[in-house]
Amino acid sequence: MKKPQLLLAIIFIVSLVSFSTIVQAQTAGPSDATTAPPATAAAVAKVYCSGSTITLTGPQDATLIPVADYATYNWYKLDAGGNPVLVAGQTGKTYTETSTTAGYYNYELVTINANGCSSPVSTELQVYVLPPLSTTITTSSASVCTGSTATPTLTANPTPATPYALNYQWTLAGVNIPGATSSTYTVPVDNTAETLSYGVTVTYALNPACGPATATQSIIINPLPTKPTITAN
């Protein structure tokens, strides 16, 4: 075999190997599950809730009159090593994927027009998926006496607690308590004997619609015994 033919054969084989490494079934899960979450929602294209459907939309061919979709859309999802993987079976303008584990899901797109001409690779697009959110409440005391100076402190215990910024809202009988927006709440105790139902709602700062996680805790305010009367036999 002549050298030019040998060189062409080698290039062809390498091309086949290279192509076979990127044409495969979609890999479930994030492209990057270890990097810290974005500081703000604006740092990524969108922040999705756990288990929601990621929906991406490509452009249309503006050279056509009227404007129409490209003939083919090649969607690429980056793997854990940052390598683009061509997603099989999704060649339309809209790409969908059900999110699983939390992390960054990174994508690229190549469009092909009716003449078979391919566009340059798009700028990488990142979305972030949040993990499921839950919470419990612990209290320093669930039962106190009326007028007590030892007021109970309620503490929200969300999961995950880090590294995400979280919003808190405490409620009494289902009604928001003004200003009660930290991870703890101190219950004011007056002279009324009653059972109070406190709650907390925890959401992600990156996307308050995700979750929300809720929990409740009852605080019993017990009456004092009546003033005793002493009698002598």
Model description:
It is a single chain. By secondary structure, the chain is mainly β. The protein has 2 domains: 27-129, Sandwich (Immunoglobulin-like); 134-222, Immunoglobulin-like, CATH 2.60.40. It is 8% helix and 39% strand. The chain has 1 helix and 16 strands. The protein has one helix spanning 3-20; strands spanning 23-24, 46-48, 53-57, 72-78, 84-87, 94-98, 103-112, 125-129, 134-139, 143-145, 153-159, 166-172, 175-176, 184-186, 194-204, 213-222. It has a 6-stranded mixed sheet, with no helix packed on it. Strands 10-16-15-12-13 form a 5-stranded mixed sheet, with no helix packed on it. The chain has a 3-stranded antiparallel sheet with strand order 9-11-14, with no helix packed on it. A hairpin with a 2-residue loop joins strand 12 (166-172) and strand 13. The chain is rod-shaped, with a radius of gyration of 30 Å.
Short description:
By secondary structure, this protein is mostly beta strands. It has one helix at 3-20, and strands spanning 23-24, 46-48, 53-57, 72-78, 84-87, 94-98, 103-112, 125-129, 134-139, 143-145, 153-159, 166-172, 175-176, 184-186, 194-204, 213-222. A hairpin with a 2-residue loop joins strand 12 and strand 13.
Describe the secondary structure blueprint for this structure.
Elements: H1 3-20, E1 23-24, E2 46-48, E3 53-57, E4 72-78, E5 84-87, E6 94-98, E7 103-112, E8 125-129, E9 134-139, E10 143-145, E11 153-159, E12 166-172, E13 175-176, E14 184-186, E15 194-204, E16 213-222
